[in-house]
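User: Fold both of these, please.

Assistant: Here is the first one.
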Amino acid sequence: MDRLTYSTLRVREQGSVLFAQIHRPEAGNAINATLVHELDDVVTRAARAEHTTVVVLEGLPEVFCFGADFGVISDAARTGRDTSFDPEPMYELFRHMAYADVLTVAHVRGKANAGGVGLVAACDVVIADESASFSLSELLFGLIPAVVLPYLIRRTGFQRAHYLAATTQTIDARQAHEWGLVDALGTPSEALLKRHLQRLGRLSKKGVTRYKAYLRELSPLTGHTKDVALATNRQVFGDPDNVRAIRRYAEEGVFPWETATPDATVTPVPDPPPQPSPSETTVEPQHQRPAAAPQPPALSPRALGSAHFRAAHGVDYAYAAGAMYKGIASVGLVTALGNAGMLGFFGTGGLPLDEIDDAITRIRKGLAPGRAFGMNLLNNPADPALEARTVELYLRHGVRSVEASAYLHPTLPLVHYRLAGLGTDAEGRLRQDHHIVAKVSRTEVAEHFLRPAPEPLVRRLLDDGLITPEQAALGARLPLAQDLCVEADSAGHTDGGNAYVLMPAMRALRDRVTREQGYADGAAVRVGAAGGIGTPEAALAALTLGADFLVTGSINQCTVEAGTSDAVKDLLQGLGVHDTEYAPAGDMFEVGARVQAVRKSTFFPARAQKLYELYVRHDSLDDLDPRTRTTLENKYFKRSLDEVWEETRAHLAHRFPDRLAEVERSPKQKMAHVFRWYFVHSTRLALRGADQRVDYQIHCGPALGAFNTWVRGTDLEPWRGRRVDVIAERLLRETAALLTERLAAYGVLAAGGTPPSSDPTPGAAPGGPAPLATAE
């Protein structure tokens, strides 16, 4: 198995057995398109694997699988999108589970309903705990378990499957065992499963393959069965009455035969039917709520943003922490986020390859199986060979996600990374194993990433044998990057753009290029937001602007895991929203590029600006007047300019010997390199926490000041209490709560009522985050 990272599954290997746990607790382990695709991928890859003979499918202890995710259908109906979905992938998943060259075992605890019963029925062996229950609830909503029934009939016979579907009655594990849906029953079921796996583990891959091939020949399921099942499924899910019933249930908790009451969302019934979707939860009465504007269900933070982003990167949340150079986005930071189901990008800027190599190894060691991480990939016009070697390192380590930074146009290594991850699976479906998150702040740069890789670069890679013709052909039909991260007023390098302007412009550009290129469904680039995100209000604003994912930066620099000094964190902890400023950038000093950095308690922005002004006005160091030279040597550099030049010269001789002679011949270039030394020096001072605090160069945006205000008076006020995963989870949790609150307020307004007051609760910390222990 070469892929163990999924967004809806927890996958682990144990010898010849592959365990796949359905893990959508925020949605009651319901089935969505991503789950179908990912589980099919697991079965397909296990069937092809040389030594894998068994796949064990499990759910959560309380629920195996509730069936279709009604929330997805409801959301589509509410926003005017197509509510229908293609049932064929589900049917094919069941077929693969039943007949692929691997033995499938369902380990069922808790509730299995609707499509969840289909997953069980399709397996070769079913082991159940006595807590398990089984039901088909589709007819309650006018639906038909059309895709499930062929596989259920195969196990139980026609009449028992018909009885379950027609009565929508729940049967317990013992009844399911008597009817043949369950093969073995016991408590605890884990011990029973272990005994079965001991026997199944004795089987060879060749024997299993031949046996399953024989079963395929005996299959009672015909092509006609499939055609009827798919046609029926499409008909019932396309019925507007059924869609209205689903939406009403998902949004109000009201069954089709019930009447909503003004004071309670759910009308009690003596014997409620089994849950057909994860949305069926008891809702507390909402005081002063008009009947026409029911309280929306509390949103899960996992539901924010794009499900496609989560699936592509193998994470639980549409959230990432951007790379901060010199390893400030550290190994510890990346692993903490990864283990929490989020994406962290390691900060490779300014680090040698051996340190990056070591960092990848340590990240992988620190991550739980199946957890995701990303690496920074920097454009390096001064040393393009370094960029190429970095990509080679990533390919060797199998790095799946990179944050592409400082690119003005595509480069050969960047295109190499993208195309080398393209391929097709056994069924001919596109596989994209390498994911690029392109950081952009200008539309002309973004367009390069929205279009396919430039043909001349693709041809060079083909000529050099670095990609295959198939990869070149696939790349011609796909955008260079799958994700755009739109930066606005962020830390470090930034154009200082306004998110309210940039996000709509980038989305409009994305839509135009998608139409022009004729990309297939699902190939449209996701657009995320970065910069200024330090509070739930800011995160919600980004999502309202259409962000598919969120990227934070500055707030992560002031955490326990951040790879910078305690002195820097002490300073950052006290920042306000006006304590940052734009200053010249050291790495692009000559062209006047700018970074956003801390100005509170430091002279760095002012001194950096002074150096740039001197560079613009003078042609050489010899042109500086004596007073200015003395100021630079005594206050800025703490050493003579000659000493600075000698240190700089030694660096050039070691790293760029071919360039040294050119620099020495040009007094202007020599002055630029001497002035750039200050930028390197000021960064080192900050990372070490040296005494010269006034010269610290700390890249930071105003988001941290807003965050500091938000957490004032809470456990997150001192930085030693700030852990990067805790910050992320709390930010997302409060964003989801805020969105729920706003939707409720708008619902009341739409019904002609008065929205609730947004004044803080007396005695509460204004704007403070709720504790993580608060139930969703």
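And the second sequence with its predicted structure:
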Amino acid sequence: MAGKQDAPTAAVVVGPDGMVSGWSEGGRLLLGWTAQDTVGRPVTDLLVDPPPPGFPEGYGVGPDPTGFILLRHRDGSTVDAVVTAHPLSGPGGSAMGHVVTIQRWGRRPVIADRAFEQSPFALGVYDPELRFLWINASSGRVIAHSEEQVLGRKYREVLPEFDRTLFPERDDKPYTDAVAHVARTGEPTRLITVFRPRGSDYANAWATSIWPVRDAEGTVRAIANWGFDMSAEYWARQRLLILNKASGGIGRTLDVMGTAQELARTPVPGFVDLVSVDLFDEVLRGEEPPSVPASDPSETIRLSRAAQHSTKTDAGQDPEATAPVTHAPGSVAARCMATGRSTVELAVEPGQGGEWAFGPGLAADPAHWPPGNPVIDESIAADGLTGRITVPLRARGTLLGVVAFSRVDRPEAFTADDLILAEELTAKAAVAIDNARRYSRERTTALTLQRALLPQGLPNQEAVEVASRYLPGGTGTEVGGDWFDVIPLSGARVALVVGDVVGHGLHASASMGRLRTAVRTLADVDLPPDELLTHLDDLVLHLASDLQPAAHFQPTGESGATCLYTVYDPVSRHLTLASAGHPLPLIISQDGTRTPVPVHPGPPLGIGGLPFEATELELPEDSLLALYTDGLVESRERDVDQRTAELQRALNHSTASLEALCDTVMDTMLPRRRTDDAALLLVRTHALDPHHVADWDVEPDTAQVPRARKLAVDQVDAWGLEEAAFVTELVVSELVTNAIRYGEPPIRLRLIRDTSLICEVSDASNTAPHLRRARAFDEGGRGLLLVAQLTQGWGTRHTTDGKTIWCSQTLPEAERL
């Protein structure tokens, strides 16, 4: 029975003579004619036009049971209709005419059935239990079954392979699950299904729409689907996705090994199953790689396996260390590196015109392959490979190594488009690897230069015990300009210096070297910290003006430098310090309390015109000083005050060894992925024993010179340094005499027994003595020359209330403190 929305169907009985002998109620509804109007009339009276070709003359019904005609409606209009004729037979098979059914064209003409049947898209209809009701020819070819073979059978019974996905790592939804979901919920869906049709070794990608078929009451009576093969578009999109992944995933770090490993991981498993990256050892070291002859090399090429990644669980890990790899003369890899051209090897000859995993049809067209590809090599099957693409790794005309992309136990053959993808991936990685190599070379050079400019060994000092650490920024960060120094000064004092040049690379290292040399030179003059920084600031300004770079040179970076200069005196336990924009030191006493430093850092070096403030502190004996650069305390997560508090807690770590404490502080304060250099100088201060210091006031009268000599000699004898008595007597006589004659009172004489024997004479005059050579008959001018000849060093240092002339004598090892 027709549904409410069904159009009427007319049934007409036509005799052998073409006369209408029967007329249904549907005829009246369809054409407006009643039985009285039509019975007994020729059936051709209902036609608007002559019968179509093939209709027998007389009544327009021929051997073809189906036709499209234009019928006349009673009201004068025309009706497009489809007629189907069914012959009637009498006793003995005699012809009795036809039963003709007439349907309006708008319902669904039979030609529509043929259109669906002949559609190039795969069409199918299933009942709610997923049993086949109908499929077209295209669908039959896809599933390798005819309609008769599948009608009434369940989908999962006929196609169990559709219950699983070809790529589970992509979270693809099995096709049968999607059909069942539509049957259960009545909600249409669309999806892309990747599968291998029966009888094919190649995966196809199909775009499919699935929807419910409802009756007039809205009840789901069937499930329909259509799909078309979009393999070419799908695999092209997959290539773009892999290239996009490569753009974001290759070259994230300036590390050769890391970039090689990124290249090895990116195309697995979406494109291939195994990737190996072999590089020259020189590339791994940041050096220029060797050249390879433009023809087949006659010698074995030796590389290192920088990275390897595989879908196999037993080989899916990248090697922890590089392994040597050799490529024999004439091998595929050797030829590729020599000629600069890629090679595609296939284990078997691919089928012509078949469906390919990365695009149908075109892959088998030789016109799309570059000359010499693909190469059929059955020997690779012994390694479990179905195909391999070998690509030379070149960047900026330089050969860095070779990359192999392999498919293992995968039936899909490589295509010409796959070769393009492999070359694109390799080209992206080659530039990143070459950038990393160049960066590694510059970073190594800068680091070597900086370490050469830093103190190679800190001098032994009785005044202080020191330990230091310097760590450059992590991989991917250029070397900075952090530096430190320990400089022995006169009077058993010691200068402790730490600084930082803004910027990175060779220029920062060179700038650091210039500043460190300048500080040492100024320290030899024995300037107070604030004066020394003032001179250093002037020097930086002069360098900035004298070394204006040409357009092709990078500017120098001293103008962004900071420096902290401190002087510790073990006799008085005084620490004098001044800062040019540098963090102040942490001072921690033995009981763990922090000694505040009441001074404000001055401007960075190179600003000019602003003063530097110096301050003097008296330190408890065995105080701990921490001088550091900002790389130790700067953090994106915490402010500087919080990080400084963390540093103080780390310094309170109970350990007797400064070396161990250095390691503890660096491990505690520095993250694994640091972005800046960090320098740390730890200092344990000591006080000189008062018994090892002797000083006297000297009256400004030359008659006091013998008394001064005797006091000095008696003190040297008391210390058990009899061998130094003669030289001490001479230098004391000369220095005291000069102070009385040319200086101003008060005059003081001081002896210090340290690693050397130090003699100091101070007066209130600011006039510095000069060493000169006396002529043969001069009566004076030999005093300082004599002092210089008899001692191992002498000099002058200016103080706020005058000057001090000093000299030192080296003591035998047994007599040193």
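The two ends are 122 Å apart (CA to CA).
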